[in-house]
């Protein structure tokens, strides 16, 4: 494992980057460099243990006097609410769904990583750490990733104790399977329903605290503004989505666990309600947005079938354990029934290009190669637009080797879901898959304590940027969400809350009044434009721009074009939007208008971030930066930094603050999975 030797953690292994290129000149302002003010030092294996001891405690009597708002009830938010409630804090939990159980974490299928080495195949905490940093193309913080790997084993024990029904082998022990980007089996799973089962476990733990009176639940509430009083996050303004009432909720700290922003692309694997508003409202109040261009395209999704779709469906990456990915060698065979194409006329392109990892290469590589073969004219399935968007995921060899019953036991619900959506039986005909927008590695900037640059505002799970670099390995999202909620945040937020109880903020405070008025003014503006276009029509147009110019491949010319198009779209949005209904009732058109307005602003920042980063790394692929054989080409000497963007005002330019990425435990290498 070249470059993986554990160094002392005390000596920098790379120099600070010095960016010389500036493709985004004129689109942004360069700000001061930043550092993580609470970043740990010393041997990497001791950093988290030492920090947990160093962080101050909050005595039980004071915990009862402190209130924490948590926005989001997925794995990160639900686990945090349960844990902080159990500790004795007063927790206010918010979600826009009608039940916390509808958080998008429930849709995760394949599994959750943990370094338990049950298979005795060479796994370890350090190997999980190494795989995650390498998989993220060396654009993540090593201290944060090592902590994630270190607490991963605790997550499994916690969830088993809650009764999560993980798959077990014949002897009754917990089973594992492999995921892309690794060569060991470390992924724990519950068939294709892992996210659902884990979320139910976190939900049950949270409901226990609801019954105990430490957690107060607010469903069908959407956060529309962050309250920053005297320089600290002290509450939120939320809209009751049923009655339309604008409510003020105050606390001693605010935690955002509101998920990712993949729906900026309109078509994605995310739930249709998933949005960026909570994070974007915080960004506009001063919180840095980090690495927004790092978007993950998942290779294993059901292909788009036409212009009528509003969502795409994920098929678990675990299917790549037994399924073989291929396309015809000749374009003229693409219309044939795949069963009529002989073996010698099939191109198992991942196995051919990456013999060491084969079909288990990381998601960004598998996605890009699927795009390449389809762009060559060898895609399969129906014509959508001017070409076929699909490759085969074939289980015929696995069925011959293991038998249909064994495959059915491992993947039955996934196969059933595929058949219900496509009308094709994957036991008889190969699945068709194509990449789709899935997860985002960008998010609000946080320090090692998961606190943003706004004191008192903490960010967990997919809503922050910290752990995955430029590409998330499979089965790491559930790991990070539960790690943050159960084990990291409860140990770091107490360092901040130890200074409490804090002076009470009244609703008459100028910052509260200002936030209330800002929300009311914004709602009134949406309703008063009275144009001709629906929020959905703007969202769909934005998604087309983002996918075409800031999707799987980005170019300088395309990104500049996208920025101009988004700015024109924003102008039309604020002059030609049509929102039906009123503010004082259930109004989904009004909800969508607010979310689309934030997506439009985010989309522009994503394109500026992608334009500035003239390198290819992970899910960010600049056509101008690739090796001779088409692989992503990083430029560590210029771009080994976190891009933390500060809101520049309504008519101003975003301000770029750089946090240098300095490695002390792993040497940066060019990724290779061959």
From TrEMBL:
Pfam families: FAD_binding_2 (PF00890), Succ_DH_flav_C (PF02910). Residues 68-478 form the FAD-dependent oxidoreductase 2 FAD-binding domain. Residues 539-673 form the Fumarate reductase/succinate dehydrogenase flavoprotein-like C-terminal domain. The keyword Nucleotide-binding does not apply. Keywords: Flavoprotein, Oxidoreductase. NCBIfam families: PRK07573.1, sdhA_Bsu. This is Fumarate reductase/succinate dehydrogenase flavoprotein subunit. It comes from Nocardioides fonticola.
């Amino acid at each position: 494992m070249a470059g993986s030797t554990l160094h002392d953690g005390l000596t920098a292994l790379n120099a600070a980057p010095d960016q010389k290129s500036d493709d985004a000149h004129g689109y942004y302002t360069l700000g001061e460099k930043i550092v993580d003010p609470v970043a740990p030092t010393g041997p990497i294996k001791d950093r988290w243990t030492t920090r947990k001891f160093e962080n101050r405690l909050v005595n039980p009597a004071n915990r009862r006097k402190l209130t924490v708002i948590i926005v989001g009830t997925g794995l990160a938010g639900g686990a945090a609410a349960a844990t902080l409630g159990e500790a004795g804090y007063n927790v206010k939990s918010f979600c826009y769904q009608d039940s916390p159980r509808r958080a998008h974490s429930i849709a995760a299928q394949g599994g959750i990583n943990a370094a338990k080495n049950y298979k005795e195949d060479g796994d370890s905490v350090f190997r999980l750490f190494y795989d995650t940093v390498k998989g993220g193309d060396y654009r993540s913080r090593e201290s944060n990733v090592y902590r994630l790997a270190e607490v991963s084993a605790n997550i499994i024990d916690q969830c088993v104790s809650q009764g999560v029904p993980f798959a077990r082998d014949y002897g009754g022990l917990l089973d594992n399977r492999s995921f892309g980007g690794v060569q060991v089996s470390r992924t724990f799973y519950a068939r294709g329903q892992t996210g659902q089962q884990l979320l139910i476990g976190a939900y049950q733990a949270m409901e226990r605290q609801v019954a105990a009176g430490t957690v107060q639940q607010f469903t069908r509430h959407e956060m529309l503004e962050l309250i920053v009083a005297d320089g600290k996050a002290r509450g939120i303004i939320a809209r009751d989505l049923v009655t339309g009432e604008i409510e003020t909720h105050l606390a001693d700290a605010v935690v955002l666990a509101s998920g990712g922003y993949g729906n900026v692309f309109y078509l994605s694997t995310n739930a249709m309600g998933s949005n960026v508003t909570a994070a974007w409202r915080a960004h506009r109040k001063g919180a840095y947005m980090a690495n927004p261009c790092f978007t993950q395209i998942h290779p294993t999704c059901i292909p788009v079938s036409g212009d009528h779709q509003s969502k795409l469906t994920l098929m678990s990456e675990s299917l790549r354990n037994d399924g073989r990915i291929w396309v015809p060698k000749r374009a003229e065979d693409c219309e044939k029934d795949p069963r009529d194409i002989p073996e010698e006329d099939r191109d198992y392109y991942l196995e051919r290009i990456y013999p060491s990892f084969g079909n288990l290469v990381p998601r960004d590589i598998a996605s890009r190669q699927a795009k390449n073969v389809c762009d060559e004219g060898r895609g399969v399935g129906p014509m959508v637009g001017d070409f076929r968007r699909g490759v085969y995921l074939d289980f015929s060899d696995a069925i011959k080797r293991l038998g249909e019953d064994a495959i059915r036991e491992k993947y039955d619900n996934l196969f059933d879901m595929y058949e219900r959506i496509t009308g094709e039986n994957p036991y008889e005909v190969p699945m068709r898959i194509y990449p789709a927008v899935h997860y985002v590695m960008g998010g609000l900037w946080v320090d090692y304590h998961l606190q943003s640059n706004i004191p008192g505002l903490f960010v967990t799970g997919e809503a922050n940027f910290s752990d995955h670099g430029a590409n998330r390995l499979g089965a790491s999202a559930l790991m990070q969400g539960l790690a943050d909620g159960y084990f990291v945040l409860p140990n770091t937020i107490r360092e901040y809350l130890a200074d409490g109880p804090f002076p009470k903020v009244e609703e008459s405070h100028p910052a509260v009044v200002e936030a209330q008025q800002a929300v009311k003014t914004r709602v009134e503006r949406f309703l008063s434009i009275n144009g001709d276009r629906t929020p959905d029509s703007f969202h769909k147009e934005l998604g087309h721009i983002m996918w075409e110019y800031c999707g799987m491949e980005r170019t300088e010319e395309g990104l500049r074009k996208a920025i101009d198009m988004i700015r024109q779209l924003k102008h039309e949005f604020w002059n030609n939007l049509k929102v039906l209904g009123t503010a004082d009732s259930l109004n989904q058109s009004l909800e969508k208008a607010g979310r689309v307005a934030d997506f439009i602003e985010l989309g522009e920042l994503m394109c500026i971030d992608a334009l500035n980063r003239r390198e290819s790394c992970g899910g960010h692929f600049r056509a101008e930066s690739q090796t001779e054989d088409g692989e992503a080409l990083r430029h560590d000497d210029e771009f080994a930094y976190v891009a933390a963007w500060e809101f520049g005002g309504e008519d101003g330019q975003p301000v770029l603050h750089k946090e240098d990425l300095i490695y002390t435990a792993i040497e940066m290498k060019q990724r290779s999975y061959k």
